[in-house]
Amino acid sequence: MRSVDKSIVISQLTASGATKNGFLNRTLASTTHFHTFTIEDETTLFSLIWHYHKATQLLTPGTWIGGKVYTVGDVAKYMLDHQITFQALASGSLPGTYTPNWFESCVNIYENFNEATFNALVVQLPNNTERKDCPNGTFRIIDGTHRTLVLSYLLLQKKRAFKPISCILAITK
Fold first, then answer.
1. Strand 121-124's sheet: what is its strand order?
2. Cα first-last separation, the chain
3. Tens digit of pLDDT for each residue in 56-66?
4. Domain tally for the chain?
5. Is residue 26 part of a domain?
6. Is residue 84 part of a domain?
């Protein structure tokens, strides 16, 4: 890992359009240090932590208050095992609790996937609860959730070969 100045990270994220993400902006505001690294293999990509939230509840069938912590690989595999497509999710045609418009960008990414436009992911270290609930998880995804889900799905479908992915680790207060 290599330490990076906050102004450089903000500049890169602004250029990619990522700073339109409110959650990311709140994370950036509380970040004290940034480091860059590269995900070199599928196994590490699949180990990124994906959080349950209402918009994607159909893919994360947690049963306790607050949901359950999953890896992005778990979620992509769940989709494949249950024959769930991004198109079906975005159209709202599947039964269950989820927000169809959350998946509209997934459809676009899936249909027009381009490694050249796959900007750096922003991740954080998991907290104690995440480590306990998701022992195979490595980092929590802060920005890049749609992209990592689509790429994981494509890799599991064998429609893409893995290529290294740049990441920014945000260490917060």
1. 2-4, 31-39, 165-172, 121-124, 140-143, 49-51, 69-71
2. 19
3. 888 876 643 45
4. 1
5. no
6. yes
